[in-house]
């Protein structure tokens, strides 16, 4: 689905990403993890075509990403970043309808099909009750769920999310990631997701890419990545790694250094 080869990016006078090579197969969920400032958001911007790499290339469905028109790309690839909506006076429902824009013909409004899709995704993200509320009147967590409904309405083949669980309480962290996982399975959706929470990353992702100081430190299965030496090397903490008693996946327990 997506293949990136030897990506590098310079911002200002610094190379903030170096030599990143990765491949995501259709239907997979790849997690990108790493400390603050390690280059996760920058990498996502290169993979989504929002920014061009200074070196290397991104192929999407075997074609260079920059050869897609904006509309063609938006029908296949949706991105959820932290700073999404510039005009906060739109209602939640209008924001979700924006996800249907790539499918609209000029001068024609939403079709009954668009309305049906918007209704469905607002039900699935539990945002229907707030459909007439203005975006700037919603809490951080409510905005996040509305933004997730918007990318679901876009019906992409590949979805990229930058820290989608920020602002969400534990109920909605699981609800949103469960919804994503179900959507991934039902529609064979491919997902690239930046997560800070290693335990959620271990629970939901099929594989993980670890960045540190703009370089990829490891790219592998959950067990290859969530292991004490690597977590200590990358984050500078001494973790205790246990086996989840029900899910049988590694989970990180934190201990204060004091
Ligand atoms: N416009 C810019 N000019 C110069 N440096 C930048 C610019 N934008 C980001 N950087 C630097 O690039 C590096 C990577 O930033 P990036 O936002 O990709 O990291 P991140 O891993 O997503 O961080 P976080 O976990 O804190 O969100 C950081 O050191 C940051 O200071």
UniProtKB/TrEMBL annotation:
Keyword Protein biosynthesis in annotation: no
Taxonomic superkingdom: Bacteria
Protein known as: Heme ABC transporter ATP-binding protein
Key words of the record: ATP-binding, Nucleotide-binding, Translocase, Transport
GO molecular function, one term: ATP binding
Entry-linked Pfam families: ABC_tran
Organism whose genome encodes this protein: Thermoactinomyces mirandus
SUPFAM superfamilies: P-loop containing nucleoside triphosphate hydrolases
């Amino acid at each position: 689905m997506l293949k990136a080869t030897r990506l590098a990016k310079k911002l200002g006078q610094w190379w903030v990403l170096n030599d990143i090579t990765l491949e995501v197969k259709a239907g997979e969920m790849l997690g990108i993890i790493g400390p603050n400032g390690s280059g996760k958001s920058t990498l996502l911007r290169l993979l989504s075509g929002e920014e061009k790499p200074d070196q290397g290339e991104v192929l999407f469905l075997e074609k260079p990403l920059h050869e897609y028109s904006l509309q063609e790309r938006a029908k296949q690839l949706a991105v959820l970043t932290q700073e999404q909506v510039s005009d906060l006076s739109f209602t939640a429902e209008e924001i979700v309808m924006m996800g249907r824009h790539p499918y609209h013909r000029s001068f024609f409004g939403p079709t009954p099909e668009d309305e049906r899709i918007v209704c469905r995704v607002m039900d699935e993200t539990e945002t229907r009750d707030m459909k007439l509320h203005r975006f700037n009147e919603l809490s951080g967590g409510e905005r996040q769920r509305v933004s997730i409904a918007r990318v679901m309405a876009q019906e992409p083949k590949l979805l990229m999310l930058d820290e989608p669980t920020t602002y969400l309480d534990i109920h909605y962290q699981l609800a949103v990631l469960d919804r994503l996982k179900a959507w991934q399975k039902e529609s064979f959706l491919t997902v690239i997701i930046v997560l800070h929470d290693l335990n959620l990353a271990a629970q939901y992702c099929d594989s993980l890419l670890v960045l540190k100081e703009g370089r990829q430190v490891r790219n592998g299965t959950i067990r290859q990545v969530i292991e004490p030496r690597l977590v200590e090397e990358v984050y500078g903490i001494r973790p205790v790694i246990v086996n989840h008693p029900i899910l049988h996946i590694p989970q990180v327990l934190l201990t204060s250094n004091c």
